[in-house]
Amino acid sequence: MALYIVAADCISCGDCEPVCPTNSITEGKIVFEIDKKTCTECEGDFDIPQCVKVCPIDNCILPLEA
């Protein structure tokens, strides 16, 4: 599984980037982006995804649908 950032809701605050244990979050041209190939939803590192924990916008970071 992986997460994605809802571009329409992201305010580009950057809070998510430094807390990602897999360095899957980078600054895109408009908003931050999550690399679905490397995102683990923090499994094995934390109980909940750290980006979701620190994001100030509710439902801005969601699970990627398969």
Verbal overview:
The protein has one helix spanning about 50-55, and strands at about 5, 25, 30-35, 60-65. The chain is mainly β and about 70 residues long. The strands form 2 sheets. Strands 1-4 form a two-stranded antiparallel sheet. It has a two-stranded antiparallel ribbon with strand order 2-3. A hairpin with a 4-residue loop joins strand 2 and strand 3. The model has no long low-confidence stretch (mean pLDDT about 95). The chain is globular, with a radius of gyration of 11 Å.
Offer a quick outline of the entry:
It is built from one helix and four strands; from the N terminus they run βββαβ. It has 66 residues and is mainly beta.
Order of helices and strands: EEEHE
Radius of gyration: 11 Å
Topology, number of strands: 4
The averaged pLDDT comes out at 96
Helical content stands at under 10%
Shape: globular
Q: Give the strand line-up of the largest sheet.
A: 1-4
- Provide a count of the helices: 1
How does the major sheet shape up?
Answer: 2 strands, antiparallel
Structural class: mainly beta
Distance between the termini: 8 Å
Ranges with pLDDT <50 over ≥5 residues?
none
Approximate strand percentage: 15-25%
